[in-house]
Amino acid sequence: MKSEIVFEDKHFELTCYTGTLIDSNQLSSTHISGTTGEFGSIHSQTVARTDFFLMDDDGNERSFKTYNWDFSMRPGHKISVYALFSRSTNTGDYVLLKNHNLNDVSPNFLNLRSVIRKKFKRPMLLSLAFFFLGLPLIADLLLPDFLKKITLAFSFIMFVITYPIYRFKCHAVFKTFKEALLKQS
To answer: Which residues make Cβ contacts (< 8 Å) with residue 34, sequence separation at least 6?
Structure first.
């Protein structure tokens, strides 16, 4: 199925797949867990999975799976599926569904946020490890005593501000792609 890049930056690519719905089905499963007895509790979680198949104008067919995403569609409707991919890991998720016949748009901001957080999680963890472990170890081995204290203070400050910087970057990217998605509607 042909895909069209509708928005991109240096980290991500927003791709659109469009076709005519030829078939769909929905399955749900419930998972029950917990304990019994006087103070026991039981928890259940239901997951709804929707499988659907689109055929593009060239006759190419593609299948899609979504989870816990309520969206109205029936065979014959023209559907667009927007997926956000991380360029470095080539992983992603569906972030918007559009039914052209009903003029219905359904964004999934949880999936959007998840893709963005996964992209920046590894660099953040590496930065935290460097400022918490690496820099103090290097300072301890290589620097004179008076510089070790300064390096330790700098390391602590950088460790503390790394997470807010990560959160700010994630939020800025989320906002950019949210605006790009809403323009698609």
So the answer is: 40, 41, 42, 43
